[in-house]
């Protein structure tokens, strides 16, 4: 499951530098998450860091249009961060 930043985003700049996959960038109005790069921090942390640092509750949620299993997220992590 990739994550989604909702319109509740206040553009505080807390999430973008914390993303280990560089999946977060500024969109037209607020920050956005690239679903091709988001692994929900699998391979890096136990929980998504963007959700942990976001000061507004329920701003970063599971993207209902991009549901992925933990295995799929691990596969994405391996592609994004090949060994060596």
Polypeptide structure, described:
With 84 residues, this protein is of the alpha+beta class. It has a single domain, classed as Alpha-Beta Plaits (2-Layer Sandwich), CATH 3.30.70.20. 19% of the residues lie in helices and 14% in strands. The protein has 2 helices and 4 strands. A two-stranded antiparallel ribbon has the order 1-4. It has a two-stranded antiparallel sheet with strand order 2-3. The protein is globular. The termini are far apart. The model has no long low-confidence stretch (mean pLDDT 95).
The side-by-side strand order for the widest beta sheet comes to 1-4
Number of strands: 4
CATH topology name: Alpha-Beta Plaits
> Which radius of gyration do the C-alpha atoms yield?
12 Å
CATH architecture: 2-Layer Sandwich
Number of helices: 2
Please report which band the strand proportion falls in: under 5%, 5-15%, 15-25%, 25-35%, 35-45% or over 45%: 5-15%
List the helices and strands and how they pair.
Blueprint: E1 3-5, E2 24-26, E3 31-33, H1 49-53, E4 60-62, H2 70-80
Antiparallel strand pairs: 1-4, 2-3
Provide a brief overview of the structure:
The protein is an alpha+beta fold and 84 residues long. The protein contains two helices and four strands.
What labels describe this entry?
alpha+beta; two-stranded antiparallel ribbon; 4 strands; Alpha-Beta Plaits; two-stranded antiparallel sheet; 84 residues; single chain
